[in-house]
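Changelog note: in this version the structure field was regenerated for every chain. One regenerated record is shown below for reference.
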Amino acid sequence: MFDNKVILVTGGTGSFGNTFIEKTLKKYKPKKIIVYSRDEMKQWVMAKKFDRYKNIRFFIGDVRDRERLYRALDGVDYVIHAAATKIVPTAEYNPFECIKTNILGAMNLIDAAIDKKVKRVIALSTDKASSPINLYGDTKLNYDKLFIAGNSYTAATSSKYSVVRYGNVMGSRGSIIPFLLNLKDEYIPITDLKMTRFMITLDQAVDLVWHAISDMSGGEIYVKKIPSMKVIDIAQAIHPEKKIKVVGIRPGEKIHEQMIGLEDANTTFEYKDYYKIMPTIIPWTKNKIKKNSGKAVDKDFFYTSDNNNDWMKKEELLKWINDNSGKIGSF
């Protein structure tokens, strides 16, 4: 799929970008992978990590900069769009900056990718885009709509745009697992005792992106089937000796994650390992879905971290932490 192709990853120095590039280089033989990001120090560190590979290029740039994107996309076949402002409280207090990156950045990328005749673009989204209650989720809902609608402008180029959506990435930088592993306090701060989260690994996130690129017709949202955990169970698995202190929910935070809402049930199809939400404005993809054995979900279907049939046990979490101790990000 990626052999002899040129791939550009926006936000490529993040947790996802590092894992995507590492796995892709092991499985495929891309002609070139371009890491596009605005943090020169992270690029310098990443360049040392991958210094034995001669097909990686580093491109300083911001998705807010339309002209820079045009330059970066010269000769690119595939784009993985991972750049985002995504910390919920940060977005609440810095709404202008969040909108510039997540919405205007998406618009810039879509325009540039169409004009540069990029073959396929996968945009990384979030559970928070489904029935959003915070600014980050709201910008990502707009982001999803932009990439889906982008397919309406690509008839002359055959470019395709789709979205992958997932929740809490286990061990990613700034997430709950590295926070708890680095916790020095005598108590564990928990926002709400009922809170639940989906649990997806970076490897699973990359696999979902790979699948989406090979499967997409354009306009689909791919949702991986993954287990859930109660946040209190995550905390007690890592620090069974510490007491719990309820500190209250943060601005814009949800008690439970939602990947697929009731409003999407009419256009959602189920497969063995994932769901696919079909676009309502692009009808041609529905026929392909049915031919590929997708099963329409019930009209009252929704997919949230508290109504999940699959739950991760504490022992499974601890085994994953032990097996991946060298890969867990910082907080």
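Spot check on this record: The chain has a mean pLDDT of 92. The first strand starts at residue 6 and ends at 10.
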